[in-house]
Here is the input.
Amino acid sequence: MSFINYSSREINCKIVYYGPGLCGKTTNLQHVYGKTNPEAKGKMISLATETERTLFFDFLPLSLGEIRGFKTRFHLYTVPGQVFYDASRKLILKGVDGVVFVADSQVERMEANMESLENLDINLKEQGYDLSKMPFVIQYNKRDLPNAAPVEELRKLLNPNGSTDYEACAATGEGVFETLKAISKLVLIELKKSH
Amino acid sequence: MSNPQLVMYDEEAKQISAIIDRLTKEANAKVVFVVDKNGQLISSSGETAGLDTTSLASLTAGNIAATGGLAKLIGEKEFSILFHEGEKDNLHISIIAQRVILVVIFGSQSSLGLVRLRVKKVSEELAKIFESLARKAEAEAESGDSPFAEITDDDIDNLFN
Here is the structure.
């Protein structure tokens, strides 16, 4: 849940990037980090293995500016995508305000996408969240690859509820900020609704 | 939602700040900070200049979450105290009122025994404040009196221009 600090006039929100292993969650954060002004961002932390696979999480704090006199701060987290890190994923979802699901567009990763999405749903439910009722954005990543499945097909399988979705190529940065803006907006709209 | 929203007001922020300032002095600590279990920094005291408190907060919460996971695996509810010993500086981490995390960074000018004693003393004081904060936030949420209700779509759009 967001943390509202009337004393320092800050709103802090937590956004989690979820998705199957090697879908580009960390690449999304790296792009945001690389393209953000130094004064608007903190240090990016990656708890990764020697082969740069995410072990626990990546963390990137961002300031987006002021809204009604309150500074808005977003904490972006990724989860480790590999199936056997489920215990860690559950921990990182604690207190989440919004979720970005990064799907790997490659045809052969379709099953991994579906498995990860199902896992997200289960892990959120365990904590009393309902994915269909919370800020949620889907990103179809790796659109530049020759073996990418058609977006319509991805939509049918991964986004039956018609959540906001974007095509992206996180390695070049295409679609990365669009996704971030969309989820941040949804989180702030939710904050407004819940008060 | 399972997790009630954390809200901080001026009055409580001052009380918390005064308590951890006192703890910093009495425990001969370098830095003391209070973090929400979700990784948000609530308050800090001591030599924080040059210290990345945001990252510290996030990693501390991750650490507590991971050790909490370990605790459950062996049938414990949680490990309420963690201690990390370094060459020069040490970290003493404790959970207060099952909700917030108190972190003390101290060097050779202090000792684990002293820190533990002082932390124990202020824990109850802090727990009371966070309990009253939770009640206050709940009452406030019910009254529906909030500056965020008036946020417009334009306000949100302006953030991204």
Remarks:
- The longest strand of chain A covers residues 54-67.
- The mean pLDDT of chain A is 95.
- The first helix of chain A runs from residue 25 to 35.
- Chain A touches chain B through 46 residues (CB under 8 Å).
